[in-house]
Amino acid sequence: MTAPLLDIDDLHVTIPTDRGDLHALRGAGLRLESGKTLCLVGESGCGKSLTAMSLMGLLPRKARQSAGRFALMGTDYAGKAPKAWANLRGRDMAMIFQDPNQSLNPTMTVGVQMTEALRHFEKLSKAQAEDRAIAMLDRVGIADPRSRLGQYPHQFSGGQRQRLMIASALIGRPKLLIADEPTTALDVTIQAQILQVIAELQDELGLGLLLITHDLGVAAAIADDVAVMYAGRVIETGPVAQLFAVPAHPYTQGLMVAIPVPGRTRPGTPLPAISGRVPGLIGGVTGCAFRDRCALAGDGCASDPLPRHAFASGGFVECTRPSLSETRP
Amino acid sequence: MLSFLLRRLVVALGVAVAVSALSFALIFLTGDPAIAIAGSGGSAGDAEAIRLAYGFDRPIVVQYADWIGSALTGDFGQSIYFNIPVSEIIGNRIPVTLTLGMLAFLAALAIALPLGVAAAMRPNGFIDRFALVLAVSGQAVPSFWLGLMAIVVFGVWYGLVPISGTETWQGYILPVLVLAYSAIPELMRITRSGMIEVLNTDYIRSAQAKGLPTGRVILVHALRNAVLPLISLSAVQLGILLSGSIVIESVFAVNGLGRLAWESLLRSDLPVVQAIILILSLFYVVLTTAADLLNAWLDPRLRGGAA
């Protein structure tokens, strides 16, 4: 069996603050196979974006990181110099961000921004690099690409800018694409188009896609696997169909019932929300971080480490009393 | 870009006309020039004779048209005090002040720009703290005192440079450095704050995510955006430096425009004062226009018009 594209285990990130160390990632883990899509879901502040930044080697300077395993394509970089991992950036892995309107340099032409990495890494000539950029722009659905290379970002619409970001990220033919809420800043009608473009290119290029989203609808639509993150840890993961059909962690269940379903959710009735708040992560948390909000919480929930139940169909849940009444293989 | 260029030049021309009219009118606002020329010992008859001789009796619009028409050909009239053409006096002073001002500006920029960038890369780091100390002392230490100290230490004690005058190039060293020192703080702080702001933007994160070398991220992606406010400020700072510093020129006995303006005011040498005001204000018009054009060249969003 070949090694997974991305294999992260026991990832810790600590950010020093005035009030003490913020233990933002507390042993997070991820696995992604080539050509597959892993959706990382969770509420704001759970560490999704920080995980992406850690993967890209773009953590804030004062952040401290450690990992049990930090591997891309079978090579483990845990414990190696950060420089070795940073060298993968832009070649083996690329990233697109939430707000395409802020993510392009307003003072540089689209052509330069798309080709500069190619010219740097692959030592292509200007003409060669521009040919690649034109092909890529055409691929993501920008009309008349040749003439648009000389234009500036403000001459493109929001949806077009995200297409530019996608083209710019994929022009170097990376193996892994990290997309951090790539459609959140866009109109709903544009969102589907952008996801469509990403999915098509993923097939063509055999990309592994790590999609960060808080939109479970998006996850259901395009994920192969889903990882649910809570307070800096992945608490449940598994193939999308199984996880959505039989969510095992009380938190995952809470997320699921909070989605309005046309026909089933009666208008006027409040959606069930998960009560309580995410615990503060300064100074760290032991045991289950969800136990204060959990209706099922009991004595064992403060134990550390928590028991982990693996499913035969892949994935796991980290909970002392997971709901396993319905059979999830 | 071309239409922006034309629009900006038309505006500049308008400003230049308004400024020249104002500088001309200022002379009449300060009192009757004929009486001023006649001096304290002059009689009413003398003043009347002078008024006729200089054409002060004509309508002010005619006088302005006459003056600006001559000025455009480089003729600013005769100095009342020296009784030689104003253009000759000013012509001797301008190169001195321009040399001093330009060198001081370049020296200030050469220090402020890299220091501001380095300070922004690690706010509150060692370089940032050092730069802050330099900025505060640059603003707090008066330049006449610094100039005198520099003369004492480097001119008198060590004899490295001439203590006054600009007959040799060595004479420029101290005034340039002292003048630059006063211009550094503002230039550096605007570089630092602009750079800090830009380094926190999403597009810098995108550039880093592409795997570009740090040098390219900082010097191409970030600096291009961070220098926009610096350029606008530089136009003003350079204008101040080119106007000639009365203090610096006096301390170092430099025969520049600043001292000439000051002395001419004391001597009521109106044609000289008028000419200097006009020339200096035109400096500002040219500099701010150049800064706007440079900014528009760097930032396409500023060009407006057809997007």
From TrEMBL, chain A:
Q: How does it sit in the membrane?
A: Peripheral membrane protein
What are the subcellular locations of this protein? Cell inner membrane
Q: What is its main location?
A: membrane
One biological process term from GO is: peptide transport
**The keyword Transit peptide belongs to this UniProt entry's keyword annotation:** no
Q: State the UniProt keywords alphabetically.
A: ATP-binding, Cell membrane, Membrane, Nucleotide-binding, Transport
A single cellular component GO annotation: plasma membrane
Q: A GO molecular-function term, please?
A: ATP hydrolysis activity
Q: Where is the ABC transporter domain?
A: 6-256
SMART domains documented for this protein: AAA
Task: Kindly give the InterPro entries that the UniProt entry links to this protein.
Answer: AAA+_ATPase (IPR003593), ABC_Ni/Peptide_Import (IPR050388), ABC_transporter-like_ATP-bd (IPR003439), ABC_transporter-like_CS (IPR017871), Oligopep_ABC_C (IPR013563), P-loop_NTPase (IPR027417)
The entry sums up its family as follows: Belongs to the ABC transporter superfamily.
Q: What is this protein called?
A: Peptide/nickel transport system ATP-binding protein
From TrEMBL, chain B:
| Gene Ontology MF terms in the entry | dipeptide transmembrane transporter activity
Q: Where is the ABC transmembrane type-1 domain?
A: 94-291
Major localization class: membrane
Where does the source fall among the domains of life? Bacteria
Localisation: Cell membrane
**Topology with regard to the membrane?**
Multi-pass membrane protein
Keyword Ubl conjugation on entry: no
- Which of UniProt's keywords are assigned here? Cell membrane, Membrane, Transmembrane, Transmembrane helix, Transport
Q: Where are the transmembrane segments?
A: 94-118, 130-157, 169-188, 226-252, 272-294
Please tell me one Gene Ontology term that the record gives under cellular component: plasma membrane
Q: Which family does it belong to?
A: Belongs to the binding-protein-dependent transport system permease family.
- Output this protein's name: Peptide/nickel transport system permease protein
Lineage at the top is: Bacteria, Pseudomonadati, Pseudomonadota, Alphaproteobacteria, Rhodobacterales
